[in-house]
Structures are given as C-alpha cells and as structure tokens.
Amino acid sequence: MRLLPCLIAAALLALPAHASTPGSGLDAADIAAAEGLRDRAIQGSQAWALVESLTTEVGPRIAGSPADARAVAWAKAKFEALGFDKVYLEPVTFPVWVRGHERAEVLAPFPQPLVITALGGSVGTPAGGVEAEVVAFADLAALSAAPEGSLKGKIAYISNRMVRFKDGRGYGPAVGARANGAVEAAKKGALAVVIRSIGTSNDRFGHTGTMRYLPEVPRIPAAALSNPDADLLSHMVQRGQPVRLRLDIATETRGDYTSHNVIGEIRGRDLPDEVVTIGGHLDSWDQGTGAIDDGAGVGLTMAAGALIGELERAPRRTVRVIAYANEEQGLYGGKAYAAARAAAGQIPGHQLSAESDFGAGRIYALRAGVDPAAWPVIERIGQVLAPLGIATEATGGSPGPDVGPIVALGAPWAQLAQDGTDYFDYHHTANDTLDKIDPKALDQQVAAYAVLAYLAAETDVDFGAVPVKPAN
Amino acid sequence: MRLLPCLIAAALLALPAHASTPGSGLDAADIAAAEGLRDRAIQGSQAWALVESLTTEVGPRIAGSPADARAVAWAKAKFEALGFDKVYLEPVTFPVWVRGHERAEVLAPFPQPLVITALGGSVGTPAGGVEAEVVAFADLAALSAAPEGSLKGKIAYISNRMVRFKDGRGYGPAVGARANGAVEAAKKGALAVVIRSIGTSNDRFGHTGTMRYLPEVPRIPAAALSNPDADLLSHMVQRGQPVRLRLDIATETRGDYTSHNVIGEIRGRDLPDEVVTIGGHLDSWDQGTGAIDDGAGVGLTMAAGALIGELERAPRRTVRVIAYANEEQGLYGGKAYAAARAAAGQIPGHQLSAESDFGAGRIYALRAGVDPAAWPVIERIGQVLAPLGIATEATGGSPGPDVGPIVALGAPWAQLAQDGTDYFDYHHTANDTLDKIDPKALDQQVAAYAVLAYLAAETDVDFGAVPVKPAN
After folding, report:
1. Is the Cβ–Cβ distance between A454 and A319 less than 8 Å?
2. Across the interface, do B289 and A232 touch by the CB < 8 Å criterion?
C-alpha cells in the first residue's frame, strides 16, 4: 500500500507525452501541435510588441473618442499584418461620455488640494463647483442607512477599502460604493459623493470606473479620491471639526457613437462554422495608456491567434480573435457580439469562448463552463498547460466580461485565470502604462491561449451549448 | 592564534554595558541615559503623529506660499507643546516661485497627452504654449555636444535614467540634466527642454526639483516627464518619424518673501552656549504633502529633542532642533542659519550638527566629520546605536543639505545615513504622502537622533571646529 502512489506516479510518467485521452477527440499529433505552439510562445511571442504598438501609437482610447477610431484602425491593420484569414468589423453603438476637468480641495479647517477623478458616467458639478461639508460613511450600507434628507446640502464620503487578493475578489465587496454611491447619496439629499478609490495601491491616483444613476433619483457628481487622499480626508474628519470640501468637475455625455468590434479569424479546415473565440477589449479608460486594461488582452490573444495561423494545417474549427469595443462603460462590445450571433442563429455553433481582461499577470488556473461530456477535452488541454504552472480546476471560475452576454445565451466558456495580485494597483488609473507588463509573463499567457484555442478548435467534441434561457 | 579573536570577543562581551570609553568624556550614567532614550523611542515615539499632523493640517507647503506661514506657525506651536525650553524664529528671505498649470501632448504622429511637471524655478511657455519637434539626447553631455544653433525652433528631450541605490548615489550622475538642461538646450537655440524624471519609480508622476538659469543664456521652460511618459516618448522617437510636442506651462516668479527657520532648544545645564543641532526642513514641494521630504525629518528630530527634554537632567550642552525654511529651492534656511551664527561669532561653539533629509527609511550607518581627537565620542555613540542596526563608519558620509553651509564655515557634523532605496520613488512628486512612512522605522530614527544629540551634548569633548576657509 505504501508503495502504490509511487508506482502510479511511475506509471503516469511512463505514458507517452502525446497520449490521447479517451473522449477528448484529440490524438497524439494534435497534442504535439499544441505543445509546439506552447513552446514557441514561451520562447518569445509578438504580444509585448503589439501592446507597445497600441499604447505608443494609439494610447488612451476611451470609447467614442477620436482615439477609439484609431484603435479600430490599428486592430484591423494588425490582424491583417498578422496573416489572419478574415478580418472584419461589427458595429457597436453607445452614448459617449467625456471627462473635462476635475479638481478638489479642502477649504477648511486645513486647506489643501486633493487628488480626485470623476467616475465614468458622472455628471459634472454646476459651473464653478460645489462647496459643502463632508459627511463620512464607512461603507455604502452605512450611507444607505442614513436618515432621509440628512445629507441635504452636504457631500457624502464613503471610505471603504478594497482588499488585495490574487483573484481580485476584494473588488466585488468594495465596488458597490462606486456603482451606487451617487444614487444612495442623492436619495438622502447630498450634492455630490466622493469615494475612496476602488483600488489597492497607495499611489496618488484616483481610480475611475463606471457608476450608475436611476431615473427617479437626482443625478449628482461622483468622484474617487486617490487612496492617500482618502487617508488624508479621513484623518481630517477624525479630528471632529467640520470639513468643507470644494469639488469642480466638468463632464459631458453626448449622443450615440458607433465603434466596432474588430475580428480576425483563422478559418477552420473542416468545421468553419463552429467557432472558438478568444479576445480582449480594445477600449480603455482615458487616463492611462490602457496597457494592462486591456492592451494586454488584445495583444496576447492576437499573438496567440497568429501563432495558430502560422501552423501548416489549420484546426478543424474556426479560431476567432475578438477585440471588443467599449467594455469599460457597459460591455457594449460583448453585448453587440452576442446579439449579432443570436440574430444569425449562431449560438449553437459557438463552441468555446474566453477573454483575457484581468491584466498581464501569469495564468495559474484553467476553468470552464461546458457540457460534462466535454470535460475530457478540458482536462487534456489542462495537461498541455500544466508545464506553464497552470492547474485545471473542475469548479468555480467565470467567463470574461465580454463573454458574459453570449454565455447568458447558452454558449460554453473557458477561463484562464490570472494572478491579479497587483491588477487593482493600476487598473482604471493614469498609471496603467506599458512598464507595468512583464514581457515573459505575457508570453506565458500567449502560450496558454494558443493551446486552449487550438485544441478547442481541433477537437470535434461538442462543448455543449445549453438552451437559451427565456428573458425575464 | 586561532583562538585569540574568540577570546577578544568574549572579553568584549564581558565588559559592562555601560562602560565608559577613554577619551569620550562620557560615563556609565551618561550611557545608561542614552540607552534609556533609545529604548523609549523604539517602544513608540511621537514622530509619526507629528508627521501626520503636519501633512494633514498643513499639507503641501512650498516656500513662500500661504501654507509656508501655516507650517511655521505649526512648528512653533509643536515645539511649545512638546516642552522645549526656548522656541524662536529666525528670518529667511528668498524669491517666490509659483506653479500654475502644466500640460503636454504629442501632436504627431501619435497624438496623446503626456504627464509632465515644471521644474522648480522654470519660466512658463508663452501664453498658449509652444509646439515644436522633439530632438532626443541620451544625456546632458550629448545635448552639450550638439552643434550651435542645431536646436533652433525645437524642444530638447534628455532621456537619462537615474539608477536605484540604497545610498541614493544614482542621483548625482542623473540630476545634471535637471539642473543644467535648460541652459544647455537654450545655448543651442531650443524653445524648451523636457527631461526624464530624476526618480526611480515607474509611477506616472513627474518629479520636480530645482533647475538654474545663467544670466547670459535665454531662459526657456523646463519640465520633467514621468518615467512611463519618457518611455513613451522614447518609443515614439525610436520609430524615426518627427515627433511634435506641445507644451503649455504657466509659472510665476515673484518678489522676496520672508519665512523663518523655527528653532526649539533644550538648554544645556553646564555649557548652554555650546550647541548640538539636529533638524529637518519644514518646506516641501507643492505636489505631495511633503511626508518623506521632509515632514519625516522635522517630526523625528522634534520627537528626539522632546525625549531629551523629558530627562530629569538636561545634557551639558544645548540641544537645538531646527526646522529649516526653504531647503528645496536653494538651502535658504541653512544658509541663513549659518550666516546668523557667523555674524554672532558662534561657529566655534557649534559642536555637532546633523540633519535628517533623506526620507523615512531606517538608519544603517553613523558617520561624522570631527576633530580626530573627538572620534572616541563618535565611537561610543556608535556602540549605543549598534543594537538599532547602525554601524559606525570611520570614512565617507556628508552633512545634510542645510548643515552644509555651517560646515563650510568650519562646524563639525554627523550623519545618520538612511536606507534610501525607495526614496527617489516618491521624492518631489505628488506621491510623497504619509502612507509611504513606516512608523516603526521612524521610531528607529528617533532613537538614533536622540542618542546622537544627547551624547554629543553630554560630553565635554570638543568636536573641533576647523578654521573657516577663506572664500574663493
């Protein structure tokens, strides 16, 4: 008994590296091709050069801006230069939000400027700004519990802190303050709301991101203080004297703009109408150059697709790389993509979808939402990924944000989970720049996406589109 | 022979901890008192609370601003509250420089904004800004070697990188670009100069700091790009197409302002006219809250002085804690202090001077510039500091910046060298905020300054003012 585990391990080691797995629909030649893709990517991929090109030649590319159009042209040209079989655009329409200026200062009792940034979608202050006393709340729940009318003529301040985790799970509990702070504060009569940034660094940058209004609640300006400025404001408030703040924010929401999802395909050799998709989102917020969010996702999935395109024999199914439009302001690209597939009756052929939108940290886990009958394929893919430090996990995970809408229509998904320990240090700030990316980590991700996309496209096992749920 | 070192070590260990050292002028009770100061500081000092107070209640305090006056009032009130025997102000006069706005953008071929900050003392651009092609240089020497007139109508860009070292020695070789870039660029006909920030982080902040003009050379605007923006500009320049930049900088230099050195003293019990000084500088740049540069130095030397003031018996000599005015823009406080001592014939009584102005990292070395006959005192002080992880080094070192002027007049100095590995990540940026300070590291520094000041004031050994060198 005591020797048995060793014997099993020895037996496993004795298996040929390219052995197929029953039920995977993959043979030794397929595995060898996937291993070749993996090993070539690890030796050095085109991903970093693509992100360098996007951040240098386009830079910040908030949806609906002139740079959005330049980014679309950039992506189309890159797909073409990389030799994709088919490159095309699909329209994505959304309202345009524009940041103007944003300034904050403490007027009393300790006058000094504060670093803030307007939240995406926020209205501005009246011209000339607002000046009011700050009322502090530990979190959104505390604000929601404030008496009706108690914030009349005040500025609400929510100080909740995001906690750092590898998988980013500190974001969910904290981000409600950003999403709903304005509505909750306005319900109590506040003139404006400021929040501690939903981010993990102590660098003096405000973290932007979307917020929402409700039709029946007055729209008030919403901004994020950098975390050091939130510390500062909290220290002032703790002294017990009234703290008066001045906010001067200009923003504009304009009419609809039509951008595009940019798509490059490697056509499947046997089953071209069955599709495996990988991708990232092409838009960014307006302050950084959108390197980790999400130049990395775009660059590495383009590079992974291009590697597959260089194979002598294309996989059975089509590999589609998608650079989604306007993820940041409401998953517009992912929604438009899913709606177009649904309208064309293409959900059943949509075999497996993955998106990279969690920075540029190394991938540590493969997860998937597929028909259990297709799980042997996921496991076989996981075996090829294992030397990259990637574990296959049978539970948990979720599709990327732009994949969510098509998954909601029944499409299967996979997730290559990344180490996001420092993702929220840079995310949605001016500090999201190229230097934050480790080129070797990017190559590891290209390797993983190339293996995943290739083997999912090479197998003929059906990943199992589930029936579309009726809308409710 | 082989056993001898062990025997010597054993003999040293057998010495009573409070043993006096011949030639130190210190007895066992003095050493015990110093050890008591050290151990109380390590258990928790007032330094962090002082820095928190200064950064929260005053914040950025560029010399000559309304906040400068608030900082002077703050320091005076704190010295008084801490129980110093004598608290007084000495005038320091200097011209006032004020930052207005500062904006930069690439116009072509890849339009996008860049993060810059004007260098201290820089003139602004003409109203509306300047637009010109960038000419890049690897360093100041390369710019200086450019042909006369070759930069006519251009913007010079110097891309040299500061290298990170524990002792900050990467600063000297890099900072010439900041100090002299404008003069060298103007000599060649440039309209403006931009430099890579003289700093070690890859956070998207421009690092400001002083620069100089020469009377015979036209004054052109000078600004620092954040390091990620310098990467970006270099990547654009490397593509070989002309890069057009737009700079729009507003600054103002106003007439003279009189601020103050703020001084608190613990009066010596026997030799009150012999003085040991410690201190930091009270002013900061205008963007951060001046936590590490130099709220830390002010707070920790105040706390160290206050600890000495709490002793039942004051040391023989006077301990003077100095919060210097306007260090940042030209050591005005240190120069005024030295000039006042020289005018009063007080240089010979000026026993030992030290300044903390290198951030809030732990102290790792004691160095000094004293009469060799007084070296046993330094060694004895070093023995009390050793449990703090501080080594006594017989060579090297230099006085703090504000101590330099009085040292130039012959006064002896000591240095408590700090770990500055990350100092230039934050120095002269908006990111110089309270959260960058480890309170426990600050306590270690308070312990070291308290021991140094107390024992240097308790001994009657003369540290040996050297004759004033004739000016040349």
Report:
1. yes
2. yes
Measure the CA–CA gap between B70 and B289, rounded to whole angstroms: 13
The pLDDT assigned to A22 comes to 81
pLDDT at residue A424 greater than cutoff 60: yes
Segments of chain B with pLDDT less than 70: 1-20, 465-472
The span from the CA of A233 to the CA of A104, in Å, is 11
* Residue A20, pLDDT score: 59
Q: DSSP letter for B362, please.
A: P
Fold classification of A96-253 is Glucose Oxidase; domain 1 (3.50.30)
Rounded to two decimals, the ipTM of the complex is 0.93
pLDDT tens digits, residue range A225-265?
999 999 999 999 999 999 999 999 999 999 999 999 999 99
CA dist B404 and A42 (Å) reads: 54
pTM: 0.93
Q: What gap in Å lies between CA B250 and CA B221, rounded to an integer?
A: 9
Interface test with B, best of A50, A431, A436 (most B CBs within 10 A): A431
Name the CA dihedral angle for B369, B370, B373, B379, rounded to a multiple of 10 degrees.
-60
Min Cα distance A285 → chain B (Å) is 13
Question: Given this model, what pLDDT does residue A19 score?
Answer: 53
The 3-state DSSP class for residue B50 equals: helix
Residue A472 pLDDT: 36
Distance between CA B385 and CA B392 in Å, rounded? 8
Question: For residue A70, what is the nearest residue in chain B, using CA coordinates?
Answer: B110
Q: How is residue A131 written in tokens?
A: 């000046």
Catalytic residue among A184, A327, A328, A355: A327
Tell me if B433 and A232 make a contact (CB, 8 A cut-off).
Answer: yes
Distance CA A44, CA A443 (A): 6
Find the CB nearest B204 among A58, A228, A431: A431
**CATH code for the structural domain at B102-252:** 3.50.30.30
B203 touches chain A (CB under 8 A): yes
Q: How far apart are CA A181 and CA A222, in angstroms?
A: 8
Handedness of CA B448, B453, B454, B460 (dihedral sign): positive
B60, A436: Cβ pair inside 8 Å?
Answer: no
Q: Is the dihedral of CA B235, B174, B244, A290 positive or negative?
A: positive
Per-residue pLDDT at B22:
81
Q: What is the pLDDT of residue B466?
A: 60
Domain ranges of chain A: 19-85+267-458, 96-253
Domain A19-85+267-458 matches domain A96-253 at the CATH topology level? no
Percent of chain A with pLDDT over 90: 93
Q: Does B110 contact A205 at a Cβ distance shorter than 8 Å?
A: no
> Does A84 score more than 60 pLDDT?
yes
Between vectors from CA B112 to CA A55 and to CA A359, what angle results, nearest 5°? 30
Does the structural domain B19-85+267-458 have CATH classification 3.40.50.12280? no
Name the residue facing B236 among A56, A228, A431 (closest C-beta): A56
Cis preceding linkage at B215, omega within 30: no
Q: Does A438 touch chain B (CB under 8 A)?
A: no
Q: Which of B202, B228, B433 sits opposite A204 (nearest CB)?
A: B433
Residues pairing with A252 in the sheet: A98
Does the CB of A133 have a partner CB in chain B at under 8 Å? no
Rounded to the nearest angstrom, the minimum Cα separation between A7 and chain B is 51
